[in-house]
Design a protein that fits this description.
Order of helices and strands: EHEEHHHHHHHHHEHHHHHHHH
Strand content: under 5%
CATH topology: Growth Hormone, Chain: A
Structural class: mainly alpha
CATH architecture: Up-down Bundle
């Protein structure tokens, strides 16, 4: 799939179409150079946000104001109704975003339970997961950038309504066909909302903590997954009525999310190019492409690890380890996303730079995958849990580093498209390998999952190679602690 430059203002449009997307003036594209933290620990380098080329430093006599590691939120657009404070809107968007991903995790253990009570084959559950992954991927590629053109609020509200419809189908589904349809709708809604929510959180970042939006955009999906897995572990242990109440609780949160979205002022100008943005593509501006390429295997490996535990480990725990307790299974499955959230939060306020965070996280995911392989080979449940802790911790550190490296290189008008490109890689890692492994499971579930975990280790190793190349250093130099060429060439700033 080719990486293309994010389209700017369309020209030669039919006047009737242009009028539909011109409620606000077109945002000027020009911006001053930005200063990007590559995590070397030795300062930052000014780059042009359009071309990615280094910008000559000003004379020593010129006073240069320090630039924050992440961009400040834009000013709320004038002339729009505003009833929530920025802090309230930020918290509301974060909670609603988390509810989306909690709803993603909820159906999997319930499908395992219904497999027993409805009597359908195991491959049907894998097909239902594949339907979700396909919907997620299509939505990210087609409408992932739409909020950069129509605004954040319309995209989020429509996605919330579709997600509510999916939850209703889960509750009242008479058979597995309706469950699969609900999964498709859920994937479409989640894909449409993910990039819009991530961009909104950056837009609304507190003035005193400009990196908080970038951090939350990366860790909230993991927090939602962990919450969903834990909640459904308790619900399945109870009865089907509790399951329905759980979906009802999520539905209430999403309805409140609609109210929050409608009472928050728009942070993205409506502009030309909405129809062109619907063409499926991975859109990354030139200034961020090098970091995006280096981040791809890091993101893939991390979300493959999540997919392993959310999609396949519940089956392994039941069939290979004989664990019938949904609460116990939920706790083990939730270890990886919980540790991802914890490590991301703990490392956010430290001096760990973006590059070093990506490298350290990818290394931990690699180690965690190897531990999982050994655990499955020797049927070691405790070792499997340790692998989940190590790998999950690595995901939190690496995702935080990747987003901190890419976000400052992106204009406000490009945020949703760039986040859609990042989460497209996450969706591929989360969905496609799990589906393939699930289809191969009849040949031997344990062997298939071991092979999957080994593949995660290989992808993480590729991530280490590309991250070190982006830093101008070999993997051997990284392991031995040697400085990178980029460090020697980068001037130090206070």
């Amino acid at each position: 799939m080719s990486v293309v430059e994010t389209p700017s203002n369309a020209t030669g449009s039919n006047p009737t179409i242009a009028e539909q997307f011109s409620a606000s003036p077109i945002v000027p594209e020009a911006q001053p150079p930005i200063r990007v933290d590559l995590g070397t620990g030795n300062g930052s380098t000014a780059v042009d946000p359009t071309t990615g080329s280094p910008v000559t430093a000003p004379p020593a006599s010129t006073t240069v104001q320090p630039t924050p590691a992440a961009p400040h939120r834009p000013e709320i657009l004038a002339g729009q109704r505003f009833t929530l404070s920025t802090t309230q809107a930020f918290v509301g968007a974060a909670v609603t975003f988390g509810a989306f991903y909690a709803a993603v995790a909820v159906p999997t253990p319930i499908l395992v339970w219904r497999e027993t009570h409805w009597g359908y084959a195991s491959w049907v559950m894998i097909f239902a997961f594949a339907a979700y992954a396909l919907g997620l991927l299509v939505a990210l590629l087609v409408v992932g950038a739409l909020s950069d053109y129509l605004g954040r609020r319309p995209v989020i509200v429509v996605a919330l309504v579709v997600e509510l419809g999916a939850l209703l189908l889960f509750v009242f589904a008479p058979d597995v066909r309706w469950i699969i349809l609900a999964r498709v709708l859920q994937g479409l809604a989640t894909g449409a909302a993910t990039s819009a929510f991530a961009a909104t959180l950056v837009d609304l970042s507190p003035e005193r903590h400009p990196r908080l939006g970038v951090l939350f955009g990366g860790v909230i999906p993991a927090a939602g997954l962990a919450t969903g897995v834990l909640l459904v572990g308790v619900a399945v242990e109870a009865n089907d009525t509790v399951n329905s109440l759980l979906f009802g609780l999520l539905a209430v949160v999403l309805v409140l999310g609609i109210a929050v979205t409608l009472t928050t002022s728009e942070t993205a100008h409506r502009r030309h190019g909405a129809l062109a943005s619907l063409i499926p593509q991975v859109s990354v501006p030139p200034a961020a492409r090098r970091e995006y390429v280096a981040a791809l295997p890091v993101v893939l490996g991390g979300w493959m690890f999540f997919g392993l535990f959310i999609g396949l480990v519940p089956l392994v725990l039941r069939d290979s380890f004989g664990i019938d307790s949904s609460i116990t299974a939920g706790l083990i499955v939730a270890l990886a996303p919980i540790l991802a959230v914890v490590t991301a939060l703990l490392t956010n306020g430290t001096e760990l730079g973006a590059r070093r965070a990506s490298l350290a996280g990818a290394t931990l995911v690699l180690i965690g995958s190897v531990v999982v392989v050994i655990a499955l080979a020797i049927d070691g449940l405790a070792l499997l849990s340790i692998g989940a802790v190590i790998g999950g911790g690595g995901i939190g550190i690496s995702v935080s580093g990747v987003l901190r490296a890419i976000s400052p290189r992106t204009r406000q008008t490009q945020r949703a498209s760039v986040y859609a490109s990042i989460f497209t890689a996450a969706a591929l890692g989360f969905g496609v390998p799990v589906v393939i492994a699930g289809l191969l499971a009849p040949l031997g579930l344990s062997a298939t999952v071991i092979g999957f975990a080994a593949l995660i280790a290989v992808v993480s190793l590729i991530g280490l190679v590309l991250q070190n190349r982006a830093a101008g250093r070999s993997v051997r130099g990284y392991l031995l602690g040697g400085p990178s060429r980029a460090v020697a060439q980068t001037s130090t700033t206070p």
